[in-house]
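Session log. Operator J.P. requested a structure for one protein chain; no other inputs attached. Running the standard single-chain path with token output.
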Amino acid sequence: MARPIGRSGAPWRVGKSNVASVLRVLAQTHPNDRQISRRDIAKLTGLSSATVSKAVAELIERGFVREDPAQPTGTGRPVVPLRWSADHYVLLGVKIVDEDQLPGHLVGVVASLGGVILVGPITRRLDAARGERTDKRALVAAIASFVTELQSGFRASQQPLGVGVELGGHLDRGTVVLSVNLGWAQASSTWEELDTFDLQQELSSAIACDVIVHNDVNALAIRDLLYGGAGSANFLVCAVYNNGVGGGLVLDGRVRLGRDGGAGEIGHVKVDTSPEARKCRCEGLGHVEAYATPNAILNTLAVRDWDQAVMLPATDGHARQVFREAGVRLGLGIANAVTLNDPDKVIVYLPAGLAIPEVDKAAAAYWTEITATVEQEAFTGGRRTELEPRPLSPWELEREGAAAAAATVLYSLIEVLEQSAGSDEPSIEDIRAHAGLPVLSGMA
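Structure written below.
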């Protein structure tokens, strides 16, 4: 399925690890298509000026990078700034959004190599009458058709580096193991023939470019790492959705998936061992997800509308206690993850009413208890771990999710280059053997 990318299909002439280092620096220090010089790249990577120049020359030839006009420095030779090229390659991202525990609609974007959204977000509803919400083949066909629609927004000179797809659930290198949000489970499901459904492989066969499929929160972690949004190489991402809590783990500049893709799942940390522990949607008892989501909070309040819930006054003792308990449970899950992984920071994506509540509202107790519980319960060796709340509305969550899916394409290319460094040009089978990564066109 892989095909040559760039102006030449020839093997890489420069060491792949050096190319990967340059790509990482370009993404992390100069996202949004801003400029950077070869001199800066050499300082940040520790590579020699000659090595950087060779790597950059090949990236220019292949269409990843372009030069801007030389700029005088006052002394010495003028500096020739570099930036991501927008003339040749783009990244496609698709988010599968759930509705009523089934796939409901798709959200897609076209992004530049620097992470700028060029087209979208575009939404396409899935047609239940055509089986797109319950039949795997119909869903794959719908995503392939949607990708074709996204490609219609390209300039004539552009082509996709690949397609990133993200969804909520436990994924093992492209195979969905469990997604309660989408009605997916290996043992029993509303879907047909799901036990061995490798979504990544199915989509790669249906779409005329390479595909990478990721868990939604891992995709957010990849975007924060790739484009420097976290400001660290060691951090956790936690995302609170209406009915779920997800986690992503980044250590030493790598997103860690674990043996079967389940690393960092904060939502399924047990935080209540009492006989009254609530049942999680995964059938486990006392998990974070059973307490800390908007839906879980609504189930214990007198109101059933979330906008009304976050406006309940702090003088409402019952409401304040509900938000407080939810915050404590999530705080315990985060504290356990902090103790085990020792990150610099934890990025917590939250609905706006929980991330930036009004101080006179009961919902303010949620974030207050998260921070207090993490500070009290996490073992950090005396060093404080930063907690950063990031509010996202439902619309922003869909847009950022699709953009994060697009970022996984460039990240996966960098990973493949690093893992095949020092070897002969790898075969398709060799590349896929590296931690289950897909074949990306840029490897040709």
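Operator note: The longest helix spans residues 394-419.
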